[in-house]
Automatic annotation (TrEMBL):
Residues 176-318 form the 3-dehydroquinate synthase C-terminal domain. Its cofactor is NAD(+); Zn(2+); Co(2+). It comes from the Bacteria. Its EC number is 4.2.3.4. It holds the Pfam family DHQS_C. Catalyzes the conversion of 3-deoxy-D-arabino-heptulosonate 7-phosphate (DAHP) to dehydroquinate (DHQ). Residues 62-174 form the 3-dehydroquinate synthase N-terminal domain. It comes from Olleya namhaensis. GO terms for biological process: aromatic amino acid family biosynthetic process; chorismate biosynthetic process. One of its GO terms (molecular function) is 3-dehydroquinate synthase activity. InterPro entries: Dehydroquinate_synthase (IPR050071), DHQ_synth_AroB (IPR016037), DHQ_synth_fam (IPR030963), DHQS/DOIS_N (IPR030960), DHQS_C (IPR056179). It is an enzyme of class 4 (lyase). Keywords: Cobalt, Lyase, Metal-binding, NAD, Nucleotide-binding, Zinc. This is 3-dehydroquinate synthase.
Length: 354
């Protein structure tokens, strides 16, 4: 696949990844290399990755525990401490090998260690390939509030090797698919329809769809890198979705992956679109049916409505105390900065539960 060149860095695909990485390392006078992994990618991805590296530089591995619950300042502190103890300096290169937790946290650590070292993201999950590793958002959660502390700074390169997807469970694959479905809903109905026909897709189709998803996000981010306007559309499904994900983050029986929560959020926010922006009712029902076929349905009891709505007060899109939503006029035509009355939020949750 042809590399995608953004304004600041390149996104390389499959076999070309490692040629580009080794060339980049050889062209720079790095003092050493640190590879950040989590306990999953350490076992399943790191051996594959290390075989592709061609360098005489010292390579150090830093491993963190897997899971969103470990995407914290405390984990960052441990990584910063390890970097310092192992003599990382401003000429160190950091390679973040993992899903969204690793690339988000690793990017934040690299941006702040000694005021910034170079870093490259190697996403290993579908979610991180099409979303977390692109666009320069780096950060961690604050308690159970998603991505509350962070910085926007692009990596020096992104390497997308879809062979890593073979290490994922079907649940993790579905989680990543949610962000791709979102890209279709906010940008391209034809693309959304292709993704909805899951039973007809081959692995080659998936490679192309990932490539197309990256192009959609790249185009939006380049037009609005600091999320003042258009980039907010990428948050469709996320205002309610993040609140639901946060609420159930440490739940014993109902903890949700990011994409599972966003899938619920997209159903809810499509319903809100139908109520406020006259988004077609039939398409609202169809999106709900198609989404539930893939993700199933969880029970959200009425007693959970109020704390979920309360969590939306911490959403980063809020301005002057107002909770802002992204809704849809039609598929491919989003509307940003929409304000929703509380009674409609409750109706949207009822619509999901019906």
């Amino acid at each position: 696949m042809t590399p995608i060149q953004t304004q600041d860095y390149s996104i390389q695909f499959n076999d070309d990844c490692y040629t580009a990485l080794n060339k980049y390392i050889n062209q720079h006078s790095f003092s050493n290399i640190f590879v950040l992994v989590d306990s999953n990618t350490s076992e399943h991805c790191l051996p594959i990755f290390l075989r592709q590296l061609e360098t005489d530089l010292t390579i150090e591995i830093i491993e963190i525990e897997a899971g969103e619950q470990n995407k914290t300042i405390e984990t960052c502190s441990g990584v910063w401490q390890t970097l310092s103890e192992l003599r990382a300096d401003r000429k160190t290169l950091m390679l973040n090998l993992g899903g969204g937790v690793v690339t988000d946290l690793g990017g934040f650590v690299a941006c702040t260690y000694q005021r910034g070292i170079k870093f490259i993201n190697i996403p290993t999950t579908l979610l991180s390939m099409v979303d977390a590793s692109i666009g320069g958002k780096n950060g961690v959660d604050l308690g159970n509030i998603k991505n509350q502390v962070g910085i926007i700074k692009t990596p020096n390169m992104v390497l997308i090797d879809t062979n890593y997807l073979e290490t994922l469970s079907s649940r993790e694959m579905r989680s990543g698919l949610a962000e791709m479905l979102k890209h279709g809903l906010i940008r391209d109905e034809l693309y959304y329809n292709k993704l909805s026909a899951l039973s007809n897709l081959t692995l080659e189709d998936l490679d192309q769809l990932i490539y197309d998803s990256v192009l959609i996000k790249k185009d939006i981010v380049e037009q609005d890198p600091t999320e003042q306007n258009l980039r907010k559309s990428l948050n469709f499904g996320h205002t309610l979705g993040h609140a639901i994900e946060s609420y159930y983050l440490n739940h014993e029986t109902k903890s949700l992956l990011h994409g599972e929560a966003i899938a619920i959020g997209m159903i809810l926010e499509t319903y809100l679109s139908s109520q406020l922006l006259n988004f077609p009712t039939e398409k609202t029902k169809s999106i709900k049916e198609n989404t539930l076929k893939v993700y199933g349905k969880i029970d959200i009891p009425e007693k959970d409505y109020a704390p979920i709505i309360e969590l939306m007060k911490f959403d980063k899109k809020n301005e002057k105390g107002t909770i802002n939503f992204v809704l849809l006029n039609t598929i491919g035509n989003p509307e940003i900065n929409c304000v929703i009355p509380n009674d409609l939020l409750i109706k949207s949750l009822n619509f999901y539960n019906e």
